[in-house]
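Annotated sample (chain length 248).
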Amino acid sequence: MPGPRTSMADGLFLVGTDRDVGKTIIGVGLVGLLREMGIDATLLTPISTGGSVERATDLLRRIGVTLPKRLLSPVSYETLASPYVASQVEHKPVDMERVWEAYAELRQQGKFVVVEGGGLMVPITSRYALVDLLKDFDLPSIIIGKTARGTLNHCLLTLRMMLAFGLPPRGFILNGFGQFGDGFAESLNPDVLEELTAPLKVLAVLEWRPEYQENPEAFIRALKQQDRIVSLLEELTNTSFQNPARDY
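Output written by the structure step:
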């Protein structure tokens, strides 16, 4: 595992195991938590599809991030599909230069950039997948999965692929507890995942609550209860967060 950093990381990359694992709300929540820690953070969705950029922009605005769309989601498509498929449907090739220009500008502004990625093998072009994007960003990463049945398979497959590419993650966030009605499986999956992937840790297990989708502040409060994710953010940003939630 990487040792303690002596300087602040440039950002954090979120890798998804599946659709609808909550990467957007988790990304916004992490940005909000970082901002409460005194870090000038933002979310970057390099390539958005299906109009998802509007939702992310709205949630970010609610926590005080008001950057222009070209910096928050430099490449976007209306088609709900992988970037490569969407680019073919809309006859608009993926312009990776816009992604790197946006990221460079955010870093020049001194921002800690939380990158909302996706599934590792999601194609961006015919010869470039999300795993290549992860490698090119060269940021610490977290795997985002569900608490539901099937998540062990999805998380382990994602981890194996990341390790094969020499891209070890810092841990897992499991999201949506209570949403799937999977009883014992949901309750035991976090512990079993840690057992199977030691020394990696599940950094947070987050409940499903409908209000989180419209109230990012409530989700940030929930994140603050998760000591492991707070500790990772402290390490990556070389800060010490006086967190009142830790006293509860």
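Annotation: The beta strands are 11-16, 41-44, 47-48, 75-76, 112-116, 123-125, 128-129, 141-146, 172-177, 202-207.
Annotation: The longest strand covers residues 11-16.
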